[in-house]
Specification:
Layout (H helix, E strand, L loop, with lengths): L12 H13 L113 E10 L6 E2 L4 E5 L21 E5 L5 E7 L10 E7 L2 H5 L7 E6 L2 H8 L7 H6 L19 E5 L3 E9 L1
Parallel strand pairs: 1-9
Antiparallel strand pairs: 1-2, 1-5, 3-4, 3-6, 6-7, 8-9
Amino acid sequence: MTQHDHDLGLRHDLPRILRTGRRGLLGVVGGVGALAVAGCATDDKPTASKPTSTPTSTPTSTPPTSPPASPPSGPAGTATATATAHPIDPKAGEIPEETQGPFPGNGTNGPDVLTEAGVVRRDIRGSFGRASGVAGGVPVTLRMRIFDLAGTDVTPLAGAAVYVWQCDREGRYSLYNDGARDENYLRGVQEADADGNLEFVTVFPGCYPQRWPHIHFEVYESLAHATRGAAPKLRTSQLAFPAGVSADVYASAGYGASVPNFEAITLDSDSIFRDGYSLQMVTMTGSVADGYVATLNVPV
């Protein structure tokens, strides 16, 4: 079982500063990611922008509007996401700031995948460049819509870029963990279209000890910012998966190692989501057999 650092004890004061003045402070805190090398879970993190209430119902599972793409045969190019309904009102508030964890691959803690050719891709299941591994698992199409809350109106943030990374079915992070150290799968960047939409094709992540099923992501002002290395970020956060869908996936083939870990964790005990998760909970449609579509609004 892969071991993860969960108690590094590093306080995240700088994300609190970012939340209060991200536009004016971007140039000052360009290196903030280097100071946030903490575990994927931490007991001391910003809570101001998290809602006090959380949803009690699990989204329904219905066939996806478009099935996930087939496994990649090579590096995939960029693609514009089609518009989709997003259930969380972007006026509900900014997506919370969270720790990037110890496996970001953004140059702040070892490898920097963001400056490599091929990282801008829609389908992140396969490795790119000199790596060739493909992550197995239940397919998930992740659709995100980025919104700008800096002004008086809530508007789509056209041209923003998002970098996502996650563990594989076995709970391993590429570039870092044994068995996946020589791979760079489940990492990629996409640029939002004129309506703030972007899309990734990935797999449902495994559940490793002490963490609820999740995906990490960073939001950048532009694709150029995301891929030039050490660029300032608008937000670093994590998204959560519904309990019912997670249980269904972990009962399927290949996810056996996730079962005891998932049984031992709840949203209320997870160190990231226990102070609120309603703005970070994706809405999902689909099934284990057909694959899922997950949607999330990301106001920054």
